[in-house]
Amino acid sequence: MRFSKFLNIKLLMYLVFWAVSFYGGLEVFSRTGDIRTIDVIYTFLFHLPLIFIVSVHSFHLLPNYLAKSNFWAYGITLFCLLGAAFPIYNFSFLILADWLFPGYYLVGIYEPLEVIGFGILYLVLSSSLEFGRSWFESLRARGKITELESEKRVSELKALRAQVNPHFLFNSLNTIYSEALKKSDKAPALILKLSDMLRYVVDKMDQEQVLLEEEIEYLTHFVGLHKERLNEPEKVHFSTEGDFSGKLIAPLLLIIFIENCFKHADLTEEKALISIQIKQEAEELVLHCKNTVYEEGNKEKKTTGTGLQNAKKRLDLAYNGSYSLDINQQENLYELTLKLGTA
Question: Which of 46, 141, 329, 341 is the most interior residue, by most CB within 10 Å?
Fold first, then answer.
């Protein structure tokens, strides 16, 4: 179907080309100013070798030789094709004219070099049309590829955003359940926080960018719910600095790095900590996460975890390399610094 459409467009282009050429020939060959039947016949016979040359060149030589970089075959065949121009021209006026139009006396007036010259001229004109059509086709194809890549990028981003860790939800519900059993006044506030977070995820998941201040509020609720389930919540330090109003950021991106702090941190030691700092500096957002690690093998988990890989993929898709992510692992400390531009 696609090839048929391509062929129809190409045929239509050449039909218009030959129609214009035929009309120009009538104007040139008409000796009286009025177009007579003999002028139409003469113009038709004159075009026969040119139509043959251009058709073979456009539909055979260009796609089968030149497009495949077979330059020797192209050059030799083109030379032979031009060499056939004058014999075909003679055949048209000496044999074909008497057979098709016996009532008219028609004589070819051009010499071999002149006929070959006409052939070269028409090859140049038709090739220009062909290359122009191919150029527009390639532009349209590149545009389609760009559109498909953009759609793929959006789909990948949506898929990555959808990878929300269910463990946080289960832990939060357990915390709220424990508070409800104790008939604590905290339970309603915790339910409201969790409800706001889930609503934010549902509403913002499909958006390319969200307000940074809304993302900060979501992260604040996240840290708050985690602190509620810790025996020593004072070991968690969360701070924000700067003016976040009016700034935009890819949604549900920072949460992956912050979630890793709680997932891999060990807070059993006296000097254990989780430190999360978010700072807006001019047009750059800086996230600095730090947590203690005492469990054996925890470093390897962090560097190969799907959460961090997910975040790096999303950074590449959403910011196209215009960010910096530095990870520093020491014996009992894991630090991460992310810097990215905010519009």
Answer: 46
Pull the structure tokens for residue 222. 């996240």
**Residues forming a β-bridge with 193:** none
Q: Are residues 227 and 186 in contact, defined by beta-carbon separation less than 8 angstroms? A: no
Instruction: Give per-residue pLDDT as tens, 58-112.
Output: 888 888 888 788 889 989 999 999 999 999 998 988 888 888 888 887 788 888 8
**C-alpha–C-alpha distance, residues 90 and 78, integer Å:** 20
Distance CA 176, CA 183 (A): 10
Strand partners, 248: 211
Q: Which two tokens stand for residue 117?
A: 């010259």
**CA 140, CA 146: separation in Å to the nearest integer?**
10
- Three-state DSSP at 230 gives coil
pLDDT of residue 163: 53
| Mean pLDDT comparison of 82-86, 180-184, 199-203, 328-332, highest-scoring range | 82-86
Question: pTM for the full model?
Answer: 0.54
Alpha carbon dihedral 289, 290, 294, 298, in 10-degree steps, equals 30
Tokens representing 277? Answer: 């700092």
Q: Which amino acid is it at 2?
A: R
d(CA 145, CA 152): 10
How far apart CA 40 and CA 26 sit, in angstroms, is 7
Q: What percent of the chain has pLDDT over 90?
A: 19
Q: How many CB atoms lie within 10 A of CB 19?
A: 10
Backbone phi, psi, residue 12, to 5°: -60, -40
Instruction: Give the Cα separation of 61 and 45 in Å (integer).
Output: 24
**Cβ 43 vs Cβ 56: under 8 Å:** no
Rounded Cα distance, 85 and 291, in Å: 83
Domains parsed from the chain with CATH numbers: 2-158 (no CATH), 167-341 (3.30.565.10)
